[in-house]
Write a sequence for this structure.
């Protein structure tokens, strides 16, 4: 048994694993869609087996504390990454100003089979936000105001954006480049109850030229909307995108007619009335959950400290001064002796 | 381009100083140009140091002038990255040159490598770059700072690697006859590689923290991350090859040059040929 483990621990095997991992990483360069993740996972599994065997059987690694800490941390990082994949969650959500986060509205959800976070307790309200643009339409800072409930149940204001995610129950919400306008509409059918809802237009200013969407009222024909926006947008100079300084007219297109509806106005359609109640903005968030990230950080720092300690000790056994003193000797010898071979032999003895 | 912008005269002067340092370092290893068989004194090394310091100061001025002109530090464009690397590589190599006299002749390899950066920067437009929102994060200082030490340690290693490879020729043996034996040079070179691995690992950790803050993910195998991982892996392979085999010093030198080439491509190639998110612009 031991001999099998010793064979698995071979350093030649390590090199094969590392080269395969290098090949796998090169193949995945730029994240091509046709390369399976196995090109990375298989070499990693090989290396995990090899390294575990080496840690168990090789005194060169398990009797040098710093080196041991480093290699164990490499193992733990791979294990944590695997746990992270199994428990993670990734998703996107578009939140209209004034609305409350609701998990049903999450889109493009990707989560590991063992994801067990407490998303039901996550609650916050989207407040107004602004996005700065530098000349040439270069996006700058995003300030997004949100209200969250603190432990005592009171509402608290928070500003998030760019480098400052909103973190609740381990779920991290990041503002993205994806944000835009929404029209708050009320549909008052000739018979039945009125319904109010929002229709998000495509990302702004990215799709500034096509601010349109469609909706089919209950029991009616499809309606096309188009928002004629007036914002601060300026291609040459700096400007700020925000709800307060933006206005718009809703263009409603049915199969028969085209109507321009100002804010607060309405249009009578075949079987009901469509009101344009409000113009608001929506912010696109990226949601990220991975319970291993803090551990990953601490373990990797511990690993590097182990490596540093190992090198520190190694370099102190034969300190930098050895080289310096070799150089000193070489200087002295140069004056007396110009024969390089002899000198090299002498210096090798000293090193 | 609108005329000569404020940082250019400082940049040219700084590169000029590095150039003089390079020539003097070369003269030091090939003294027959001065009609003597070998340099008896090491006084020229002090002159090299003086020109390196002058170069560093002038490049500091170039960076400061640009910072004032465009309102942010040299973080973004290739022009900025090259100037900033010329500055930090200069500082760290100067410190090593000063503290470790044994490696001084390797400046004839190191300084020409810096000249690749120097000539490259000269053909680039110093157009003002846009400062992306994600760069307000303080981790950029840690990430970039560690990366600078990492690259400088690799460069010092490349200097010694170049010595080992050039010593395969008779001329190379003459040039570097005042240096310790190959075994000692190799030993010192790999010390730099070991330290480089420590700084590389720390740089990757700081980068992952920044990426988590900036893009909501710590690692996504984008082109720059993959390239940086390959550099780290090459270092690991290099160190492990030396544990398993007796590597001739010139092969060892070629391994170091290979690792440096990978790091070089990661720094100055990948971010500018790929349109991946890592540019920080989106
Ligand atoms: C995955 C399988 C691995 C195994 C089985 C393994 C095994 C070993 C062993 C046995 C040593 C010998 C120590 C000595 O002789 O003094 C060592 C050293 C070392 N390993 Fe690993 N290792 C592995 C992966 C890695 C990786 C991925 C790195 C990443 C950089 C790494 C970095 C190092 C370093 C820096 C040393 C010290 C080298 C030196 O002192 O010259 N190892 N490893």
């Amino acid at each position: 048994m031991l001999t099998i483990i010793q064979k698995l621990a071979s350093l030649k095997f390590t090199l094969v694993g590392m080269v395969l991992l290098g090949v796998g990483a090169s193949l995945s360069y730029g994240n091509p869609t046709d390369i399976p993740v196995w090109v990375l996972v298989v070499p990693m599994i090989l290396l995990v087996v090899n390294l575990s065997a080496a840690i168990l059987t090789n005194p060169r690694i398990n009797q040098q504390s710093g080196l041991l800490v480093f290699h164990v941390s490499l193992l733990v990082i791979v294990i944590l990454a695997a746990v992270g994949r199994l428990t993670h969650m990734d998703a996107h959500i578009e939140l209209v100003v004034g609305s409350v986060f609701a998990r049903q509205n999450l889109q493009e959800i990707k989560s590991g089979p063992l994801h067990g976070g407490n998303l039901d307790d996550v609650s916050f309200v989207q407040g107004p936000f602004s996005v700065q643009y530098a000349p040439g339409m270069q996006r700058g800072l995003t300030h997004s105001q949100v209200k969250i409930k603190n432990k005592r149940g009171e509402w608290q204001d928070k500003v998030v954006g760019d480098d400052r995610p909103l973190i609740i129950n381990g779920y991290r919400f990041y503002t993205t480049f994806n944000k835009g306008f929404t029209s708050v509409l009320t549909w008052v059918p000739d018979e039945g109850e009125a319904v109010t809802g929002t229709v998000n237009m495509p990302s702004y200013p990215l799709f500034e030229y096509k601010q349109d969407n469609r909706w089919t009222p209950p029991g009616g024909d499809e309606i096309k909307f188009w928002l004629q926006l007036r914002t601060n947008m300026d291609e040459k100079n700096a400007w700020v995108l925000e709800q307060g300084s933006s206005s718009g007219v809703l263009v409603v297109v049915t199969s028969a007619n085209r109507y321009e509806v100002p804010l607060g106005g309405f249009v009578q359609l075949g079987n009901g009335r469509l009101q344009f109640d409000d113009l608001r903005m929506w912010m696109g968030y990226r949601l990220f959950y991975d319970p291993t990230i803090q551990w990953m950080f601490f373990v990797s720092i511990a690993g590097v400290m182990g490596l540093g300690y190992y090198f520190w000790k190694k370099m102190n056994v034969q300190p930098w001064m050895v080289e310096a003193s070799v150089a000193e000797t070489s200087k002295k010898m140069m004056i007396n002796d110009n024969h390089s071979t002899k000198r090299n032999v002498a210096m090798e003895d000293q090193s | 381009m609108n005329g000569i912008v404020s940082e250019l005269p400082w940049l040219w002067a700084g590169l000029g100083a590095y150039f003089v340092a390079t020539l003097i370092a070369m003269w030091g290893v090939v003294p027959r140009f001065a009609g003597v068989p070998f340099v008896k004194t090491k006084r020229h090394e002090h002159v090299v140091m003086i020109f390196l310091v002058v170069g560093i100061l002038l490049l500091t001025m170039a960076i400061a002038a640009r910072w004032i002109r465009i309102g942010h530090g040299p973080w973004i464009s290739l022009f900025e990255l090259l100037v900033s690397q010329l500055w930090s590589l200069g500082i760290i190599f100067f410190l090593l040159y000063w503290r470790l006299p044994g490696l001084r002749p390797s400046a004839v390899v190191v300084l020409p490598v810096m000249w690749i950066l120097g000539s490259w920067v000269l053909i680039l437009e110093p157009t003002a770059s846009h400062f992306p929102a994600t760069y307000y994060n303080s981790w950029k200082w840690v990430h970039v700072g560690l990366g600078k030490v990492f690259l400088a340690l690799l460069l010092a290693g490349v200097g010694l690697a170049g010595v080992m490879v050039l010593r395969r020729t008779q001329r190379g043996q003459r040039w570097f006859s005042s240096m310790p034996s190959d075994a000692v040079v190799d030993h010192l070179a790999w010390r730099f590689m070991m330290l480089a691995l420590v700084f590389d690992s720390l740089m990757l950790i700081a980068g992952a923290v920044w990426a988590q803050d900036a893009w909501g993910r710590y690692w996504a195998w984008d082109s720059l991350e993959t390239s940086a991982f390959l550099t780290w892996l090459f270092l690991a392979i290099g160190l492990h090859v030396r544990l398993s085999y007796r590597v001739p010093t010139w092969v060892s030198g070629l391994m170091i040059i290979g690792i440096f080439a990978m790091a070089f491509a990661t720094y100055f190639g990948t971010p500018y040929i790929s349109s991946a998110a890592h540019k920080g612009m989106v």
